[in-house]
Design brief:
Length: 301
């Protein structure tokens, strides 16, 4: 593999590859990694993939494998789509070159949360779509791997709509609006109504419904952080551990589709950015318009 200096693009380059064999994976991955090694002002490229694919890359690269960072995808994708945003943003901040320059080969864990159910697949599509906006200011180059041996055909088809090089790309805001148009199940009739979403009240309810002390504390903080967005008119709680659910009805509209996805500038989010913490600790966070403002529904597990 020859390393040389080449000019680099000035915008987020979001690609996808859809291999169905080991040979097809290597045919896409090797030129991509070589491109990263040849790019000016970039650190070594990173390959995040299934362990078997990393082994195949090591064998194919030989001595050049030492120049590339290889990460098992189970170490990278450890939770929700919002966690994936945080992990990528953190890596760019710590390791990327100027303007976020780096090549990332990325294969999600399809036998984990992403792709396991239609609900989880929808959240992954949201992540892929919003990534085009979240990382637009960077010069990062990402190649997303959708192996047809491990990825459901419907998920591959949906993901094509979120990748500009696929021939089926659609506006990210349109995709997000489409996902948000799906109605949420109505809260059960026996949902607990709280006078206010205080930390103590939410924590006590969560412990009483099966969450351990540490998880109940995180759930309560997630609720109070979401409640910081606007005045809360209604607080409802239902479910049993691990799937404890809270719905907050806010008096103001929250129309930003990126709300809670944009990494805060500090480790302690300033007022108005508490939804970032909520998305990091909850499996799902849904925002829906209401006649009075916005309903924010969060599910811990």
């Amino acid at each position: 593999m020859t390393v040389r200096t080449t000019p680099l693009h000035k915008a987020f380059d979001h690609r996808m590859t859809i291999p169905g064999t080991d040979e097809a994976f290597l045919a896409a991955a090797l030129p991509f990694l070589a491109e990263g090694l040849a790019a000016a002002d970039e650190p070594p490229p990173v390959a995040i993939a299934a362990p078997a694919k990393l082994d195949a890359l090591r064998d194919a690269l030989g001595a050049d494998a030492k120049a590339i960072t290889l990460v098992p995808h189970t170490d990278w994708y450890t939770g929700s789509a919002a966690n994936a945003v945080a992990r990528a943003a953190g890596h760019l901040a710590a390791h990327a070159g100027p303007d976020g320059r780096i090549h990332l080969l990325m294969e999600p864990v399809w036998n984990g949360r992403a792709g396991r159910t239609p609900r989880e697949s929808a959240e992954w599509l949201r992540y892929e779509a919003l990534a085009n906006l979240l990382f637009a200011p960077t010069s990062t180059t990402a190649l997303c791997v959708y192996d047809t041996r491990t990825t459901a055909p419907a998920l591959v088809t949906a993901a094509r709509r979120a990748h500009p090089d696929s021939g089926a790309y659609e506006d990210p805001l349109r995709l997000a609006a489409e996902l948000d148009a799906a109605p949420l199940p109505r809260p059960p009739a026996d949902a607990r109504r709280l006078p206010a979403p205080t930390t103590d009240a939410v924590r006590s309810w969560a412990v009483g419904h099966g969450l351990g002390t540490a998880d109940a504390e995180l759930f309560a903080k997630a609720v109070t952080e979401a409640a910081s967005l606007a005045p809360v008119t209604t607080t409802l709680l239902w479910g049993e551990a691990p799937a404890c659910i809270c719905e907050l009805r806010l008096s103001h509209r929250v129309d930003d589709p990126l709300a809670g996805f944009v990494p805060p500038p500090t480790t302690s989010p300033p007022p108005g950015q508490g939804l970032w913490f909520t998305r990091q600790v909850c499996a799902y966070v849904d925002l829906r318009p209401t006649p009075e403002g916005t309903a924010v529904r969060l599910q811990y597990g």
